[in-house]
Design brief:
By secondary structure, this protein is α/β, with parallel strands linked by helices. The protein contains eleven helices and 34 strands. Its EC number is 3.2.1.55.
């Protein structure tokens, strides 16, 4: 590590003093036109995009601790291993005769040999282990029946750490020859990030087991099928305007048979049919063959989550296209026969189309969308509204937005989008539709899609950009020259993907000043991806990282938080020195009025290694206070990052400053994002 020079140390010290510091550099004078407010800022301007990538759902936000609890994932014993000492294990096999449920036909038969007196049973590894907390309680439940003539009296359940340590133990007795559900509570005596669940037969004979669940009692809002509280709290602390779900590429699936089907994710949790996750090895080279979707976190739970964190729900639905980077299958636009479908040109263009047993036409996908709107908003007297009520939510979810397709491109998308959108609008004219402009923010396909979607009067066009940090700084003016009429922009996925976390975050902040400045064009925006498990990720960077017990927000998380908590209600024009372009000399700025609070909010990014004095003229402002409040996110090290052990290394620091009339003098720290709030009205 290099040692700072005395002059560098002095400069850094002066920067921390903010407006009190006297530095040689002449202040940059910016004019904030408080008296000339511009466009309104959308209440849902900054939101969240949840995709089941990086073990974000199973093993993450959804806290079920047992992997492959119903033995439905291929291979059927994924996550499980046999326990035996000596030659005591007679049977260890997945079977399908007379299952608990036709929707979950597989179960496990375990049998111990008589007369050995040795341990026989099974063990589950969890999702990179099981996070167990001292003093916490966990509900173990499962379906079980004794085999014919079995002498097995019951089971002993244990949570273990290492080879010898037992964290909790309980016995389950009273097994019969008929399927019954059993439950017992395990209370942990210690904390362990990578515990395992062990089930051992009490006595010789065969026992059939299914739907083996270990679920923490401590969930957000204490729901029986609730979510991991620390992760939900991190989302809520962002005060998001919307929650887009259940993902991007997983909505499409590698094939249409593997697409996300929302109707299979509601109802009884034990009966939800799991599906291999597209991210297990379908796109990126970091293979995770054990990555699947249990759908314990399904559409009902997503709607509940949006409600819990105060966000508008924004579900994304398949438009009759599988992932174009995989099989590129297409649902036929008319008719129901797969013979009229043809795969798009892609990496598997020569492969025959395959849609599963139902061979869906586009009509099936459209009906799914209409049924979802009824599920979310329909009365109890409607078929799908009744399903919502039966799940415990009598009131409608008041769904206002849906996404039609994710990152699809080309004419094949447009010719499916048009009848899809037409059918939705015919029945639900008030629903705003988010359409796709493809995976890239430029090029011929992007231009053609944007033009056609404008002609179709789309409400929102979804633009995505993953690029190096310098791209974000260089394109902070991206929307300055967009047409002020036509579709709004939904910046649905973006992240700087450089090597240095603080560099990424600061560059994103610079870009976001352009989103805010053009709030009449940009209606919604979301960073992506949202979550990542430190031991099971496919994509980086990400907004929030976690292991089985802890979690932290990255510097990008705090950039998003500062924009969201300070989004204001109306844009205020900002003029840089000499009418310079935003970003000139690595200085970026935007401003808004927070009308309910009676405050002016100014956001300033100093992307330079030196402190930068600025002078702000709040033109047209009245009733100014004598002091203001500042929040500064800064690090002189562009490689700075937060971690599980140092979760608050780069976080906002609060301070106050003085005003002189309508002038604000402030010194921006090196490599910093600063938010200033001043009492004042136009």
């Amino acid at each position: 590590m290099k040692t700072s020079s005395p002059l560098a140390a002095l400069a850094a010290g002066l920067a921390l003093l903010g407006p009190l510091a006297a530095v040689a550099q002449a202040p940059a004078t910016l004019t904030v036109q408080v008296g000339k407010p511009g466009a309104a800022v959308n209440k849902t301007m900054y939101g969240l995009f949840f995709e089941d990538i990086n073990f974000a759902a199973d093993g993450g936000l959804y806290p079920e601790l047992v992997k492959n609890k119903s033995f439905e994932i291929s291979p059927n014993l994924l996550g499980w291993r046999a326990l035996q000492s000596g030659d005591n294990l007679e049977i260890y096999a997945v079977r399908t005769e007379q299952p608990v449920s036709a929707s979950s036909p597989h179960y496990l038969r375990v049998a111990a040999r008589p007369g050995t007196g040795d341990e026989a049973g099974i063990e589950n590894e969890g999702f990179r282990g099981m996070g167990i907390r001292q003093g916490a309680e966990y509900t173990l439940s499962f379906w079980a029946r004794r085999g014919p003539g079995s002498g097995a009296r019951g089971l002993t359940a244990s949570l273990t750490a290492g080879k010898t340590k037992t964290l909790a133990q309980a016995q389950v007795t009273g097994l019969t020859g008929q399927w019954q559900k059993y439950a017992v509570v395990l209370r942990a005596t210690d904390t362990e990030a990578k515990a395992k669940l062990k089930l051992v037969l009490d006595g010789p004979g065969a026992v059939d087991l299914d739907a083996i669940s270990l679920f923490p009692k401590d969930t957000y809002n204490n729901r029986p099928n609730g979510l991991r509280p620390d992760l939900v709290q991190l989302l809520k602390d962002l005060q998001p305007g919307f929650l887009r779900f259940p993902g991007g590429c997983i909505v499409e699936g590698r094939t249409l048979a593997e697409r996300y089907q929302w109707k299979k994710t509601i109802g009884d949790v034990d009966g939800r049919e799991p599906l291999i996750n597209l991210w297990n090895m379908g796109i990126r080279p970091r293979a995770t063959p054990d990555y699947y979707q249990s759908f314990g976190l399904g559409f009902f739970e997503y709607f509940q989550l949006a409600e819990d964190i105060g966000a508008e729900p924004l579900p994304v639905l398949n438009v009759g296209m599988s992932c174009q980077s995989n099989s590129a299958e297409l649902a036929p636009i008319t008719g129901t026969s797969s013979a009229s479908a043809a795969p798009a040109k892609g990496p598997n263009a020569d492969a025959p189309p395959s849609f599963g047993t139902d061979d869906p036409s586009l009509d099936v996908f459209i009906q799914d969308a209409l049924d979802l709107l009824e599920f979310a908003n329909g009365p109890a007297s409607s078929p799908w509204g009744a399903r919502r009520v039966a799940m415990g939510h009598p009131k409608p979810f008041n769904l206002k937005y849906i996404g039609v397709g994710n990152e699809q491109w080309g004419q094949q998308y447009l010719e499916r989008y048009e009848p899809f959108a037409k059918a939705v609008k015919a029945k639900y004219p008030g629903i705003a539709i988010v359409s796709s402009a493809g995976p890239r923010p430029d090029g011929d396909l992007f231009d053609k899609a944007s033009k056609r979607l404008g002609e179709l009067k789309a409400e929102y066009i979804d633009e995505h950009y993953y690029a190096l940090p310098e791209w974000f700084r260089e394109h902070a003016d991206r929307y300055d020259n967009y047409p002020r009429t036509g579709p709004k922009i939904f910046a649905g996925e973006y992240a700087a993907n450089g090597q240095h976390p603080w560099d990424n975050a600061l560059s994103e902040a610079a870009f976001m000043t352009g989103l805010e400045r053009n709030a009449d064009v940009v209606g919604m925006a979301a960073y992506a991806p949202l979550f990542a498990h430190v031991n099971a990720w496919q994509w980086t960077p990400d907004l929030i990282w976690f292991d089985n017990l802890r979690a932290f927000g990255t510097p990008s998380y705090y950039v998003q938080q500062l924009f969201s908590l300070n989004k204001g209600t109306r844009v205020l024009p900002v003029a840089l020195p000499g009418q310079a372009k935003n970003g000139t000399d690595n200085l970026f700025a935007s401003a808004v009025a927070d009308e309910p609070a009676g405050e002016v909010v100014i956001k300033l990014i100093n992307y330079s290694a030196s402190p930068r004095p600025v002078s702000l003229d709040l033109a047209g402002a009245k009733k100014l206070g004598k002091t203001g409040r500042a929040q500064t996110l800064a690090s002189a090290d562009l490689q700075a990052q937060n971690s599980l052990d140092e979760p608050r290394k780069v976080v906002p620091q609060a301070s106050t400053f003085s005003l002189s009339g309508s002038k604000v003098s402030y010194t921006l720290a090196p490599y910093s994002f600063t938010v200033l709030r001043v009492k004042g009205t136009k």
